[in-house]
Write a structure and sequence with these properties.
With 261 residues, this protein is of the alpha+beta class. The chain folds into two domains: 1-126; 129-259, Heat Shock Protein 90. 65% of the residues lie in helices and 15% in strands. It has seven helices and five strands; from the N terminus they run H-H-H-H-E-H-E-E-H-H-E-E. The chain has helices at 8-90, 98-126, 129-134, 136-149, 166-187, 217-220, 224-234; strands spanning 153-159, 191-199, 202-209, 239-244, 249-256. It has a five-stranded mixed sheet, covered by helices on one side.
């Protein structure tokens, strides 16, 4: 017996019970913590799968949109020209006066010239000749000239000491086309600023306009155009950061150089 009437055995049992409860509590806390980590990992994987599915959907929709545009161009423009040419050719017969035959022949030749121009334009849209032959910088300069002819100022600066791969140039060109398209459709901007440079092991591209801007960057990420951009940039192990500004928005892209060479 101890001095206060509590046996040593009772003290030992109480201590053991306390240690058991403490150990059980620690075990439960550890199990709950591990369960929370597992749940977070499952949620993260679920979000990643959903994000990849959205990118895939955006890519497919973008491709279908492009196919639809090409089909419409062929049907509406080239198809109409072919139909009109056939109508003129149906009027040709040996019985017509020579002047009439010459007149119809001239019109048919003009229609064929227009068809060839439209087909070249469609081919150019699929893979710009200037991009193929001269590279990304010259292709962007050509875009800049067209925009400035339409009244939109385009400020372009670059410091890229090497030629990118054909795939990388086409990806970045399509990304810029989509950004410019968003500016023209939604931003109501007067100026576009584009800068490209190499810094360390990364290629940096910054695109800005002075339009109405974005209420929230998160809202922009749900648009098909920007989803299409993200899906393209994934091919270069890159992504895009959107920063709202007092006037307009800023789109920043950083790509490892080894993905461009």
């Amino acid at each position: 017996m101890t001095q206060d009437g509590v046996s040593l055995l009772e003290v030992l049992l109480a201590s053991m019970l306390g240690l058991f409860i403490l150990g059980l509590g620690s075990t439960l806390i550890f199990i709950l913590y591990q369960r929370r980590l597992i749940d977070q990992d499952i949620n993260r994987q679920t979000m990643q799968i959903r994000y990849q599915q959205e990118l895939l959907r955006a890519t497919i929709e973008s491709q279908e949109k492009e196919r639809t545009r090409i089909a419409n161009d062929l049907h509406d423009d080239v198809g109409m020209l072919l139909t009109t040419s056939r109508m003129y050719l149906n009027h040709l017969s040996p019985g017509h006066a020579e002047a009439r035959l010459a007149q119809v022949s001239d019109k048919v030749n003009l229609l064929f010239d227009e068809m060839m121009r439209r087909i070249r334009q469609i081919s150019h849209d699929l893979r710009p000749v200037i991009l193929e032959n001269l590279g990304l910088i010259e292709a962007i300069d050509a875009l800049r000239e067209k925009l400035e002819e339409a009244g939109l100022l385009f400020y372009f600066s670059h410091d890229v000491p090497f030629r990118l791969t054909r795939e990388a140039e086409l990806i970045l060109y399509r990304v810029l086309q989509e950004l410019i398209s968003n500016t023209l459709k939604h931003a109501r901007a007067e100026n576009i600023y584009l800068g490209m440079k190499v810094k360390g092991a990364n290629f940096h591209l910054v695109y800005k306009d002075d339009g109405i801007g974005l209420a929230r960057p998160a809202d922009a990420s749900h648009g098909l155009g920007l989803k299409s951009i993200e899906s393209r940039l994934k091919l270069l192990s890159s992504n895009m950061t959107i920063t709202p500004q007092d006037s307009g928005a800023c789109f920043s892209i950083e790509i490892p150089i080894d993905k461009l060479m």
